[in-house]
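Hey forum,

I'm writing up a methods section and want to include a predicted complex as supplementary material. The small molecule is zinc ion. I've pasted the protein sequence and the SMILES. Can someone with a working setup run it? I'll credit the forum in the acknowledgements.
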Amino acid sequence: MVVTNSSKDVLRGVCYKKRLLVYPILILSVLLVSMKLAVAFSYEAPGQLVSGSGTGREDYNVYMVKMDFPLTEIPAYVNSQVWGVGGNNGPNGSQCDILNYSYPWRDNYCETRSWDMPLCPAGKGHQGVDIRPSGCSKNIYKVVAVESGTITRIGSYTVYHEGNSGIEHRYMHMESLKVELGDDVIMGQELGMVSNKMGGTPTTIHLHYDMRSDGTFIPPYWSLVKSYQLLIDSGRPDWWSLWDWFTSWGWSGR
Ligand SMILES: [Zn+2]
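Reply by user p_vandermeer:
Happy to help. Structure tokens for the complex are below, copy them as they are.
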């Protein structure tokens, strides 16, 4: 093959185009690998409560099969607020202690409480699970609807949501609520922000999430493990942030 000046130019052009492709692919690969490495999710079995915090319910039923995890940011930490570091019955320290913000997850459904809970071994206990967001800050981390449905009741820091599955979901201790009574919401739609609201004295910064079927609080832990694993695996984009971005640029094709 005779290589002329013009064909050299063509070859240079091809190499340049290849280089243009290689760098983004390399950067993307490094990003994806580091995202995976950053998340080493582990969890205790359902019903394995902190020692001394009550008797849990060992329940591997996935009561909500198609469910979005209620927080959008990874990592998030399901663990006890009362028996965790800085909690009323936990080791001394700050609620922001690194131990509260690390895996493994620990179930806290049925943790000792004074109110009746028919599915708990003690007949009383915590109605749902408590979830800490990625960081120990309020009004930063979004809470989203775990499935599509309707908002049936709104408190000052609580949202009640009846899902199309028939399960009733409750999200507590939030601020900056984004929905109103009667709103239809879709899975993944923003409801508010994780906070520490509890009327008077604040609680720790966390989301209390529970679900009811025919009025009975059912164990959400295993459904949350599954939905969180899906969130990690899919690296779900934050569609509502994308929506905010579009609307902030004046696009309102609602
Ligand atoms: Zn709770």
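Some notes you might quote in the supplement: The pocket of zinc ion is lined by residues 126, 128, 130, 208 (CB under 6 Å). The chain has a mean pLDDT of 88.
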